From TrEMBL:
<keyword id="KW-0032">Aminotransferase</keyword>
<dbReference type="InterPro" id="IPR015421">
    <property type="entry name" value="PyrdxlP-dep_Trfase_major"/>
</dbReference>
<keyword id="KW-0808">Transferase</keyword>
<dbReference type="InterPro" id="IPR015422">
    <property type="entry name" value="PyrdxlP-dep_Trfase_small"/>
</dbReference>
<comment type="similarity">
    <text>Belongs to the class-I pyridoxal-phosphate-dependent aminotransferase family.</text>
</comment>
<protein>
    <recommendedName>
        <fullName>alanine transaminase</fullName>
        <ecNumber>2.6.1.2</ecNumber>
    </recommendedName>
</protein>
<dbReference type="Pfam" id="PF00155">
    <property type="entry name" value="Aminotran_1_2"/>
</dbReference>
<dbReference type="InterPro" id="IPR051926">
    <property type="entry name" value="Ala_Aminotransferase"/>
</dbReference>
<dbReference type="InterPro" id="IPR004839">
    <property type="entry name" value="Aminotransferase_I/II_large"/>
</dbReference>
<dbReference type="InterPro" id="IPR015424">
    <property type="entry name" value="PyrdxlP-dep_Trfase"/>
</dbReference>
<dbReference type="GO" id="GO:0008483">
    <property type="term" value="F:transaminase activity"/>
</dbReference>
<keyword id="KW-0663">Pyridoxal phosphate</keyword>
<feature type="domain" description="Aminotransferase class I/classII large">
    <location>
        <begin position="32"/>
        <end position="390"/>
    </location>
</feature>
Length: 402
């Protein structure tokens, strides 16, 4: 019955491991779910001003909106990026609002790819990019990010994987699952590659405000104003509003040779009528208000403390190493294969779940090629995170990886 279009489509974050976690919950077990970057269940609430504004606007949100989205939200998005240095030629007509970034990723690739077109996707990646490329008939080609270089993209590997069929490069910065934040010179080099090969850059910047230590983020569209770039962002993470499903896509200049592509994108946007309208009302207030995420990531902030606790608890386990994330909400530790010879990391995650009642996601679920990494969200309080990672240490010490 299932369409063959889904044959290569895989999204393990909510896959078989979550099904097993639900089964255990139904049996009465309490499962600690560290598999999804959903801030609200961990006690992170959205700024009050956003909620108040959405409630005030509810009676104006009963009808469909324009397919591209409310003008007030799109105006706020354009001025937000212009404040960050974006080319002033970008206008409200270059913004599409969606039900989260997820919907826009699917639409952007559906509008772009013919069967067999290739998209360069990082490994590891946020797996929706690989899945949505396959669903659109494209072929995801993974370029390596180098753990020994703080998980920065290996541009030689990326260059070597460009073919006559390559259409676009996906850039996830700050990165999920690794937490890497890319320095400006690397982005400039990447822009040069895109320029030489006439590739569109798909910049997923949903974690752009979740930055630790001295990390700073520059939108790719600002680095390369001469390239056609699609920038993706939304309210799910920095504004703790994942359930509202509010995201945007901004098409950066120049659009002359992309007019036909943008017409296609508009057809897809029209077909789904519009994004959730109450949530669109949140965007202007979110971007224009006080950026309260800073309280969470600066010294003394909850997210920073949790990142630190997760990294040190992991590094205390023999045979486990962890690059310190500079952004986002995850750690992506390595289990030394010499010490822990894991053959099937999904099986490992399932065994750990059944034994210790903690749900993580296996590294191969992020299209990492070898079964030697795990992704853990750093959203729980320090005590909970330390407890969960301690249970991982116990499980490993008891031979759980054998
Ligand atoms: N892009 C990345 C890198 C993500 O990590 C996520 C969610 O975890 C998304 C996109 C999807 O976000 P949204 O809630 O806006 O659909």
């Amino acid at each position: 019955m299932q369409s063959t279009k889904l044959a290569d489509v895989c999204y393990d974050i909510r896959g078989p491991v979550l099904v097993e976690a639900k089964r255990l919950e139904e049996q009465g077990h309490r499962i600690l779910k560290l598999n999804i970057g959903n801030p609200a269940p961990f006690g992170f609430s959205a700024p009050d001003e956003i909620l108040v504004d959405v409630i005030r606007n509810l009676s104006d949100a009963e009808g469909y909106s324009d397919s591209q989205g409310l003008l007030s939200a799109r105006t706020a998005i354009v001025s937000h990026y212009q404040d960050r240095g974006l080319d002033t030629s970008v206008t409200v007509d270059d913004v599409w609002l969606g039900n989260g970034v997820s919907e826009l990723i699917v639409m952007a690739l559906q509008a772009m790819l013919n069967n067999g077109d290739e998209v360069l996707v990082p490994a590891p990646d946020y797996p929706l990019w690989t899945a949505a490329t396959s669903l659109a008939g494209g072929t995801p080609v993974h370029y390596r990010c180098d753990e020994s270089e703080g998980w920065l993209p290996d541009l030689d590997d990326l260059r070597a994987k460009i073919s006559a069929r390559t259409k676009a490069i996906v850039l996830i910065n700050p990165n999920n699952p690794t937490g890497a934040v890319y320095p400006r010179p690397l982005l400039e080099d990447l822009a040069e590659i895109a320029r030489q090969h006439s590739l569109t850059v798909l910049a997923d910047e949903i974690y752009d405000k979740i930055l630790y230590d001295d990390a700073s983020h520059v939108p790719f569209a600002v680095i390369a104003p001469d390239l056609f770039t699609l920038t993706f962002n939304g309210l799910s993470k920095a504004y703790r509003l994942a359930g509202f499903r509010a995201g945007w896509l901004l098409a950066g200049a120049p659009k002359s040779h992309a007019a036909n592509y943008l017409e296609g994108l508009t057809i897809l946007a029209n077909m789904r009528l519009c994004a959730n309208v109450p949530a669109q009302h949140a965007i202007q207030t979110a971007l224009g208000g006080r950026q309260s995420i800073r309280d969470l990531v600066l010294p003394g902030g909850r997210l920073l403390e949790q990142r630190d606790a997760a990294v040190s608890a992991l590094r205390a386990i023999p045979g486990v190493s962890c690059v310190e994330p500079k952004g986002a909400l995850y750690v992506f530790p390595r289990l030394d294969p010499e010490v822990y010879p894991i053959v099937d990391d999904q099986r490992f995650v399932l065994d750990f779940l059944r034994d210790q009642h903690v749900l993580l996601v296996q590294g191969t679920g992020f299209n990492w090629p070898t079964p030697d990494h795990l992704r853990i969200v750093t959203l729980p309080h320090v005590e909970v995170l330390t407890e969960a990672i301690g249970r991982l240490g116990t499980f490993l010490a008891d031979g759980g990886a054998d």
